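Session log. Operator J.P. requested a structure for one protein chain; no other inputs attached. Running the standard single-chain path with C-alpha cell output.
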Amino acid sequence: MHPWTKHEYASFCVPIADCGNKEGNNSERKADSMSSNLELYVKNGCPWCHKVLSFMGANDIELPLHNIDESEADREHLIEVGGKRQVPCLLIDGKALYESSDIIDYLKEHVVEGEAQEAAPAEEPAAAAGAHCTLDGHCSF
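Structure written below.
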C-alpha cells in the first residue's frame, strides 16, 4: 500500500468536534472558528494534500476535512465554490485558497499560535491516481 492512501488521512481530524488534542506539543493550536470558517479539501494520494496535512498534524491544527475521492457532494461543492478542479484547497469563509505552500503560509499566519513546527520530511511523493500533480503544488482531478 502506498504511504499516501486514504488510510493515512485517518490520522488527521475530519470533523472538528471529533478531534482530540494531540499530546507532546506545549501549546494548544486550533483554528479559531469564531474568526474564520476554515475547511480543507483533499484527495487520496495527493502529495500536496499530504504536505498540508502533515503541517497541520505537526502543529495540532484541527479543521474539517473534505475528501473529494470519498464524497461526490464535496467534489461538486469544491468546483462550484472554488471554481477549479484542484486540491488542496482551503476554503476561508467560502473563498478558495489553492497551492499547498500558500495554504501553509496562511495557517502559519492566522491559525498557529507561537512558532510553527515544520512537518517531518516525507519520502518522495508519487502522483495521485487519476490526477495531474505538478511541481507547483497542486493536483487537478
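Operator note: The first helix runs from residue 6 to 9.
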